[in-house]
Structures are given as structure tokens and as C-alpha cells.
Specification:
Chain A is an alpha/beta fold and about 325 residues long. Chain A has two domains: about 1-225, 3-Layer(aba) Sandwich (Rossmann fold), CATH 3.40.50; about 255-335, no CATH class. Chain A has helices at about 1-5, 50-60, 85-90, 115-125, 130-140, 150, 160-175, 190-210, 220-225, 245-250, 255-260, 300-305, 330-335; strands spanning about 5-20, 25-35, 40-45, 65-75, 80, 95-100, 180-185, 210-215, 230-235, 235-240, 310, 320. Chain A has an eight-stranded mixed sheet with strand order 6-7-8-3-9-10-12-11, sandwiched between helices. In chain A, helix 5 crosses helix 7 and helix 7 (about 160-175) runs parallel beside helix 8. The longest helix of chain A is centred in the middle third of the chain and has 18 residues, at about 190-210. Chain A starts with a helix and ends with a helix. Chain B has about 325 residues and is of the alpha/beta class. Chain B has a domain at about 5-90 and about 175-185 and about 205-325: Rossmann fold, CATH 3.40.50.300. Helix content of chain B is about 35%, strand content about 20%. Chain B has helices at about 50-60, 85-90, 110-120, 125-140, 145, 155-170, 185-205, 215-220, 240-245, 250-255, 295-300, 320-325; strands at about 5-20, 25-35, 40-45, 65-70, 75, 95, 175-180, 205-210, 225-230, 230-240, 305-310, 315. In chain B, the strands form two sheets. Chain B has an eight-stranded mixed sheet with strand order 6-7-8-3-9-10-12-11, with helices on both faces. In chain B, strands 2-1-4-5 form a four-stranded antiparallel sheet, covered by helices on one side. In chain B, strand 9 (about 225-230) and strand 10 form a beta hairpin. In chain B, helix 3 (about 110-120) crosses helix 4 (about 125-140), helix 3 (about 110-120) packs parallel to helix 6 (about 155-170) and helix 4 (about 125-140) crosses helix 6. The two termini of chain B are about 30 Å apart. The chains are: A alpha/beta (about 325), B alpha/beta (about 325). Chains A and B meet through helix 7, helix 8, helix 9, helix 10 and helix 11 of A and helix 7, helix 8, helix 9 and helix 10 of B.
């Protein structure tokens, strides 16, 4: 019991399977991890790796039909899997809130932004109209929107993408959640605006003592802002560890491929990129073995036949799922 | 090296204006640059800076309102719209767009998509045409025997972008304009396409104008880089030099905001505040002055003209960083 109280979020053996015309689609399979209070964890992966479905499953936002969720999500001691909607509704906003990728479609285009923040405050916290308005203006100020009193009456269409994302963050923070799920919060924003939003999230996390799950495809976003990173591939965690271990001592070939295939500003121009052949697998046609095996340079017969489970690396908290892991670079450096 | 005396593409004071009167927006407000044969010029900037409009105006997909665009000595802006001469010269320049899926007709077969430019111009016919199409598809890594008869809708984004590249090469163009061609792709696929582009550039002797918002991607492919802000080029120079020592404050902010996939990379010490002003009502003088920490009265009254601070490195700023810091 005490263990549960320490961790804000405990996900164990979580699987989300969609029933499709082509058969069951395992979007998330056997995912386990936990999250401390006031910690930022990054979930990275390419499109289709299951990172968004995972974050929505943690929120309890999966569709009502054609989906099977097994395993457990303990959020501050509350079981989310199988919980009735009314129960989850009680946790949304106060325990957990979400910032979605597209700031345009997550706001109602024909409703003034102030009203959209008010709504949360009045429904969830039972505030009176004037109190809610005052608090909404405070929140707009908190997320760095200039002249919040005037902006309270603006429609989403009158704001830029970066400003809209700030409004979405304000709504998410309205009821002071303990956990903020940010699903690609800066994708689609310009680099200078992205830096503003990421700094804002960092600052708010400290001020409001939140935990943050930062879901992204961009390794640059998580490199300096997370304490731990989860790498997903084809619905499974393939590597998990401290940010430093994942970046410098990764053991899973996919993690390395992901790191090395992204161009870097610090590299000279015309640096040849290291690529992995092929593309992520079709989740409807997964084989018995490791999902990455068809693209992996180190794959052996064992990789094609048996799926590797996560196993611990030499650093505490660092695990990887691979039969033929990369050598430990730290050991090489020491010798 | 390449022939650096004669630029393949010479753009002078290009302007593109949309709307009229009250609603007039100058998306491109006087842009001049050269692209030399065999080089890749990267064009980088944030959304709304006019980089895509510049690319489209070069092809005359949108009409420039003034300025000249010379490709191999012919001024494209003088040619009649929809006329034979313009159609002719367009075979020398091809464009690849951002969204690979919507750039291809989902109901056509891959080999017909690639063959379309050839069939339009009847450069080769019959058996030779089929051989050329198969060759183009193999060059971009798509097996023509297996996939040639499939429909475009059956392919992933990365494969569609490969097909777009094959189509753009069908007329053996001199200049390829790539508008955000990898921004919709996953990193592992993006790396494949960028490497492919470098290979094809060498093989076909292509000259590239590479438009993108991602600074790391632009540096990776470019010999020279031009940085745009609010319809104007604020800095242009050799890629490595410009990234190493940016001279325009905006370039420095842009580079400072770029995120490196490295836990040891410094956190952003200074972040550019605010957002770009509306191009409908740009600031007087220097367009960046409203967000620039070094701005003075001079910046508000006089528009800075491009000045050369090193060979081939020009900056439009009254107080270029590398000079003032010395």
C-alpha cells in the first residue's frame, strides 16, 4: 500500500487491442512502467508505435466499442482500467489532464476561449460565474498570454497556433491536476514557439508540483526535459531508462537507429545519415518474434522466433528488450 | 567543384502580393538570391515567412507581382502564362511537395504516374518509355516489377515521396525545388529519403532549392542556407559558417531554439519572445526589430540592406553579431 502511495502512476501489463475488419490490432501490448511524483517521463516512438494509444488508455479515453483493455492503470491509487465513465470523469481534470497535439481541433472554434476555461472550473470545481472568470484570467496569465483580460473574449480562430496551445494548457491546468499527459504538445509549432511552450511546461511543472508524461516522436524534445525515457516500437516498450542511459548507453538497436537517423544541427552539412531499412510493421501482421527483427542488422533466428522480454541492464531502472543487445559503451570507455 | 561564375537560377527582388487594398499581404517582399549549378541552397524559416510562396513563385504556380526569375538566362516572369515557352522551360525545373500522399492521384497506377511527364512531352515512346519508367522507379528504391502496377493509395508516405521523386526526375530537370519534402515523414524514413536525395543529386547532376523549417534537416542537405523572416531574406551564407557563427540575431535565436537529441545540449538560455508580426502590417525599417533585443531607432527608420560580412555570407542587419562581437 505504501508503495502505491509513493508512485503517482503505476501501469502494469497494460494492453489495448482494437477489433478491426482485419482482425485484432494490438496497438499497445504488455506495457508496464511507473511514474514518481514531480517527475517528467518521455515516451518516444514513430507513428504507429502505440504512444498515443498508450497515453489515451492511461487517461481512460479509449472508444466505447471494439476495444479491449487488459492490465492495470493505478492513478494515485485509483484503478482506471474497467472503471465506469462516471468514476473516470471524477478524476479527469483534478487527477489527470491531457494536452493534445492539435490546438485548433481541441478547442471549440465557435466558443470564446474564456468560456472554454470557465466551463471546466464551473463544472468540476463548482465555482460561481464571477469566480470562474477571475480564475480563467489568472490561468491565461499563468500560461503567458499577453493582455489576458482582452483575450478572454477571443475566439480560437483569432489566436495563433502557439497561443491556442497555451489556452489548451490553461484548460488542462484549470483544476490543478497531479499528472499532465502531453501528447505531442509542440508538433506543428515553429521552433521558436516550441521552445516557449516547452519552457512553459517545465516551469509550470515545478510551480504546480505536477508529473508530466511527454509523448513525442522528436528525440530533441525529450533530451533535456525528462528524467526518464520510454522507447516504444510496434506497441511495446523496447527500452526504458534514465534519459542519459537511453541516449548514451542504449542497448536496443532500434533506439540507436532512432537516434542516429535524425539529422543534427551540430553535424557538418552533407553528413551521411545512418538509416534503417524498411518501415514499422503492420500491427495486424505481427510475427512471433521481435517486431524489429525484420529491420534489424543484428537479427538472428532466435529474434525471428522468440519475442525478447524487457530485461535489466547494468544501471538501475534501465531495461531493454533484445536478444543481441549492443555492447555497453560505458565499459568500453572505462577500459 | 561546380561552376560558380554563372548561377543556374538568378532571382532578383521577387515580390508576391496576395489580396488588394485593405487585405493586401506581401508574402514575399523583395527576395534576391542565386542558385549555382550543382549546389543545394536551403531556404529556412518559420511558418508564414514566405518560403513556400517563394518556391511556388519560382515555378509560377503563384504569380510574382514583380521581380525577375532567370533560369539559365531566360526570364520566366516575361513568359506568357500558360504559353508554350513557359511550359517548355518548366521541364527544366520540377517541384516536390510536402504531402506525399495528396501529391499523387490515389486512383492511378504508380508506373502511369511516373510516365505522365514523359507522355505529355513524348520524349521517349514505346518500349524505351517503359524501360525509362522502370529505371526511374528502381533508382528511387521501388521495384517496378512488383509495385509498378499498384495504385498510389496502396503506398505509405515514405514510398509516395519516392514515387514523387521518380516523377520529378522523369524530364531530367536541372533544378529541383523541394518544399518541406520530408516534414511529414517519420525520422527513420526521413533519413532514407534525405540520403536518396543526395545520391540522386550526384547521379543526375541536380541543383536543389531545399525549402524546410527544420534547421537540422536543412543543414544536412545544403551547401548554402538562406534564412527568411516575414517575406525577406535576413541572412544567406555557406551552411557550416552560418550555423557556426550566425550574423543575424534572428538566425541566432532560431538556432538556439532548435532542439538537439542530446541530453548534454545546453538548455535554451534565451528564448525569442513573442510571435512574428502580421505580414499585412509589417513593422517599419527592419522587419525583425519588434522582437530583436539589439534594436535601436535606426532599425525602426531604415531598412537594413544586405551587406557582405565574409565571402558569400550576406546579412541584412544594421548590427550583425559576428561584426559587433569582434
Amino acid at each position: 500500500m505504501s508503495d502505491v502511495n509513493e508512485k503517482l502512476l503505476v501501469v502494469s501489463d497494460l494492453s489495448t487491442t482494437f477489433a478491426t475488419a482485419g482482425g485484432p490490432l494490438p496497438a499497445v501490448a504488455n506495457v508496464s512502467f511507473d511514474l514518481n511524483r514531480n517527475e517528467t517521463v518521455g515516451i518516444v516512438g514513430e507513428s504507429g508505435s502505440g504512444k498515443t494509444v498508450l497515453s489515451r488508455t492511461i487517461m481512460g479515453l479509449q472508444p466505447r466499442t471494439n476495444v479491449t483493455v487488459t492490465g492495470s492503470v493505478l492513478l494515485n491509487g485509483n484503478e482506471m482500467v474497467g472503471a465506469p465513465e462516471s468514476f473516470k470523469r471524477g478524476l479527469w481534470g483534478t487527477e489527470v489532464a491531457m494536452v493534445f497535439q492539435d490546438p485548433m481541433t481541441s478547442l471549440n472554434p465557435v466558443m470564446r476561449i474564456g468560456k472554454q476555461i470557465d466551463e471546466t472550473l464551473r463544472v468540476r470545481l463548482g465555482m460561481s460565474k464571477p469566480d470562474a472568470k477571475a480564475r480563467a484570467i489568472e490561468l491565461l496569465e499563468l500560461v503567458g498570454i499577453p493582455s489576458p483580460k482582452q483575450r478572454y473574449d477571443a475566439f480560437p480562430g483569432q489566436l495563433s497556433g502557439g497561443m491556442r496551445q497555451r489556452v489548451v494548457i490553461a484548460i488542462a491546468l484549470a483544476c490543478s491536476p497531479k499528472l499532465l499527459m502531453a501528447d505531442e504538445p509542440t508538433t506543428g509549432l515553429d521552433v521558436t514557439i516550441q521552445a516557449q511552450i516547452l519552457n512553459l511546461l517545465d516551469e509550470l511543472k515545478e510551480r504546480l508540483h505536477m508529473s508530466v508524461v511527454l509523448v513525442t516522436h522528436d528525440l530533441g524534445v525529450v533530451a533535456t526535459r525528462t528524467s526518464r525515457i520510454i522507447v516504444m516500437y510496434a506497441g511495446r516498450i523496447v527500452e526504458i531508462g534514465s534519459t542519459r542511459d537511453v541516449f548514451t548507453n542504449h542497448r536496443m538497436p532500434y533506439t540507436r537507429a532512432l537516434l542516429e537517423s535524425s539529422p543534427k544541427v551540430s553535424n557538418a552539412s552533407h553528413t551521411r545519415l545512418i538509416t534503417i531499412p524498411g518501415r514499422p510493421p503492420n500491427l495486424l501482421k505481427l510475427t512471433e518474434g521481435c517486431s524489429f527483427a525484420p529491420r534489424c542488422a543484428y537479427a538472428t533466428d532466435q529474434c525471428h522466433q522468440d519475442r525478447p522480454e524487457l530485461r535489466p541492464a547494468d544501471q538501475p531502472g534501465h531495461s531493454f528488450a533484445c536478444w543481441n543487445p549492443l555492447p555497453v559503451t560505458r565499459g568500453e570507455l572505462a577500459s | 567543384m561546380t561552376d560558380t561564375t554563372q548561377p543556374l537560377l538568378k532571382v532578383r527582388d521577387l515580390k508576391v502580393t496576395f489580396g488588394k487594398g485593405h487585405h493586401e499581404v506581401s508574402a514575399v517582399a523583395g527576395v534576391s538570391f542565386d542558385v549555382y549549378e550543382g549546389e543545394t541552397l536551403g531556404l529556412v524559416g518559420e511558418s508564414g515567412c514566405g518560403k513556400s510562396t517563394t518556391g511556388k513563385a519560382l515555378m509560377r504556380i503563384v504569380e510574382p507581382s514583380s521581380g525577375t526569375i532567370e533560369l539559365g538566362g531566360t526570364d520566366l516572369t516575361k513568359l506568357k502564362r500558360g504559353g508554350k515557352q513557359l511550359r517548355n522551360i518548366r521541364t527544366h525545373m520540377q517541384m516536390i511537395f510536402q504531402d506525399p500522399i495528396s501529391s499523387l492521384n490515389p486512383r492511378r497506377r504508380v508506373k502511369d504516374i511516373v510516365a505522365e511527364p514523359i507522355d505529355c512531352w513524348k520524349t521517349v515512346t514505346g518500349h524505351d518509355r517503359d524501360v525509362l519508367v522502370s529505371d526511374l522507379l528502381s533508382k528511387v528504391g521501388i521495384d517496378p516489377a512488383v509495385y509498378g502496377n499498384r495504385y498510389a493509395r496502396q503506398f505509405s508516405g515514405g514510398q509516395c515521396q519516392r514515387i514523387s521523386i521518380a516523377r520529378s526526375l522523369a524530364m531530367r530537370p536541372k533544378l529541383l525545388i523541394c518544399d518541406e519534402m520530408v516534414s511529414a515523414l517519420d525520422v527513420s524514413v526521413q533519413a532514407q529519403i534525405l540520403n536518396l536525395l543526395e545520391d540522386l543529386k550526384a547521379e543526375y547532376g541536380l541543383t536543389l532549392l531545399f525549402i524546410a523549417h527544420d534547421l537540422a534537416v536543412v543543414k544536412n542537405v545544403s551547401d548554402r542556407v538562406a534564412v527568411m523572416y516575414l517575406g525577406k531574406i535576413c541572412e544567406i551564407g555557406p551552411a557550416d559558417a552560418l550555423y557556426e557563427a550566425p550574423a543575424h540575431p534572428y538566425t541566432e535565436f532560431l538556432l538556439g531554439a532548435a532542439l538537439e537529441a542530446d541530453p548534454d545540449s545546453p538548455m535554451h538560455s534565451q528564448v525569442l519572445e513573442g510571435e512574428p508580426p502580421s505580414p499585412m502590417n509589417p513593422p517599419s525599417g527592419c522587419r525583425f526589430r519588434t522582437r530583436c533585443p539589439n534594436a535601436t531607432d535606426l532599425c525602426a527608420s531604415d531598412e537594413p540592406q544586405p551587406q557582405e560580412i565574409a565571402p558569400g555570407h550576406q546579412v541584412a542587419c544594421h548590427f550583425p553579431l559576428s561584426v559587433t562581437r569582434k
